Amino acid sequence: MMKKFFYRSILFLFIFSQAAIIYLNIIPRFTSKLDSAGFTNASDTLSNGRLSYRAGVATGAASSSLVTIDSSGNADNDTDHLFPKDVVCYSGSLLDGCHNNTTYTVANIVDTTNFNFTPSLDAVALSANDYVIASQSATHTIAFTLASEVPTAGDIYITIPALDTTGKTNDYFPDTNSSIATNGFDLGGVGTGDISVASSGCANNWTVASVTAGTASADHLVQINRSTNACVAGSIITVTVGDASNKLINPAPISTGHTQGAADVYTINVKTRDGSDNTLDQSNIKVAVIEGVLVSATVQETLSVTIAAVSTSTSACGATTDVTTTATSVPWGTITSFGAFKEAAQTVTVSTNADAGYVVKAEENDQMGKDGIACTGATAGESVNCIQDTLCGTVSCSETAGYYWTSTAKYGLGFSLANVSGTDASFLYDSTSEPCTTTGGGTSTNFCARQFADQEATETKQTIMSNAAPVASSQIYLCYRLNVSTTQPAGYYFNKVQLTATATF
Q1: Residue 35 pLDDT more than 80?
Q2: Which segments of 1-66 does DSSP mark as H helices, in order?
């Protein structure tokens, strides 16, 4: 009997120990996965949301300064998204470098398939298999709030979409493919030293451990280790991918199904893990890249953002347009009436399911310069071959404050806003709030205008449209006004206006 009791005791202890192992080791692993949560306020803001340009060469004669692009079969099949002053590389079919190890600058757009550039080609003509490439790069500022504590030896694990082709994901050329699912951002040489991390709510004890370029079967991976001390729930983490030396290169449009003026939207996955690589929190963040507009816009998250044409004779912002715009241009044409307002508009439409809504900000690269020359400072004018941003009225407007622009004695470029659907415009052409009130003789029917924030003058981009909640097709008029004096030097003037959209999930 004692022997049986001994054997039964041994059997019970064995079964109990196995059950304990299962409960203490295996079950927590499943529980960890089941209990993983999404971050709060997760977003990715691009410093430049413009799609890269990638077209095929049809002809480019030796010693010529004119290229004709292929009108079919490529990511870009026209010149609509190629702008004066863009830097282009003519690369062979293998994307193994630039023609003559030289980059070229777009001088002007001739038509939908032809453009001029400087300097001229050498004695070797371009091949019909070559590409015209204008790369656009950006830093990614990824911000999120922890829902769960990240323990010591845990990490942040970021997955960034990459082209599904081994050996082409870090070659410094913008990528394209037939679908968003198989395309992505070129790594652009970004390494551990090009990534920074900031923490609010816990010590900044993070180490960028590795950056792994994508392959045909894997996306780019960034691993950031928690060195010492846990980072508690509620802490705000900001990861900046890219710096002045190296940035991610924005994709070119996908080759199938892309519509100019509508964003290609990519998904970046961010997760936190414990020391055993179990997922703690994770979120998918939408990133939108879109064509720019010449007097020009770039927009960037579900986030759907579109810029659309407004035809002439349209009532917008209390004025009637006398210029027909497109999704990518505001063509003022030849100015023959001086000291007279010219009016133009585009519609900007935003839809997003982001819990915390979205913001659209606007800025210009510079004031309008003759042949794109630099207009140094915020007040460069006709004496240096620039069209100055408007000063509006008796009270000067700026990028941050508007004023009524009713006098044709005030020259330059400015803009105003009007709601078409929704109430998301940051200010209105008929505003009755200071400083756009009856102060100084204004009325609520006047054109309350502002300047575009000037990058060259280091001004900060300003919000033109926002909402703190999800929206469906919220739409505004972005209204442009131009007034040129009789003494403005003759010539071709242009700048670029860039719109940047950020959704917060």
Answers
A1: no
A2: 2-21, 27-35
- Show me where the domains of the chain are located: 36-46+138-289, 53-134, 303-503
Q: How many CB atoms lie within 10 A of CB 234?
A: 14
Q: Does the pLDDT at position 7 exceed 60?
A: no
Q: In what order do the strands lie in the sheet with 471-483?
A: 303-309, 342-352, 471-483, 412-421
Query: Letter for the amino acid at 468?
Result: A
Closest by CA position to 224, among listed 213, 235, 242, 239:
239
Q: Are 418 and 458 in contact (CB under 8 A)?
A: no
Q: How far apart are CA 292 and CA 412, in angstroms?
A: 22
Q: Is residue 189 classed as helix, strand or coil in its secondary structure?
A: coil
pLDDT tens-digit map of 294-338? 553 333 447 888 999 999 999 999 999 999 999 999 999 999 999
Query: Is 36-46+138-289's fold the same as 53-134's?
Result: no
Going from the C-alpha of 286 to that of each of 6, 43, 141, 350, the distances in angstroms are 63, 8, 13, 14
**Spatial distance between the Cα atoms of 53 and 250, rounded to a whole number of angstroms:** 9
pLDDT cut 70: percent of the chain above it: 89
Q: What is the DSSP string of 411-437?
A: -EEEEEEEEEESS-BSS-TT--STTSS
Mean predicted lDDT score pLDDT of the chain: 90
Q: Which residue has the higher pLDDT, 23 or 143?
A: 143
Quote the CA–CA distance of 46 and 348 in Å, as a whole number.
19
Could you report the per-residue pLDDT of 10-25, keeping only the tens digit for each?
544 444 444 444 333 4
Render pLDDT for 446-492 as a digit per residue (tens, 0 to 9): 899 999 999 999 999 999 999 999 999 999 999 999 999 999 999 99
Helix intervals (H) in 274-333: none
Query: Hey, what amino acid is at 129?
Result: N
Q: Select from 151, 176, 173 the least CA-distant residue to 161.
A: 176
Q: Please spell the DSSP secondary structure of 240-263, one letter per residue.
A: EE--SS--EEPPPPPSSS--TTB-
User: Which residue(s) pair with 325 in the sheet?
Assistant: none
Token readout for 493 is 């003037």
| Residue 448 neighbours by CB distance under 10 Å | 29
CATH number of 36-46+138-289: 2.60.40
Q: How far is CA 373 from CA 85, 158, 381, in A?
A: 10, 40, 12
DSSP assignment of 372-383: T----STT--GG
Give the SS3 label for residue 489.
Answer: coil
Q: What architecture is domain 53-134?
A: Beta Barrel (2.40)
CA triple 161-162-167, angle to 5 deg: 165
Task: Find the DSSP H helices in 337-490.
Answer: none
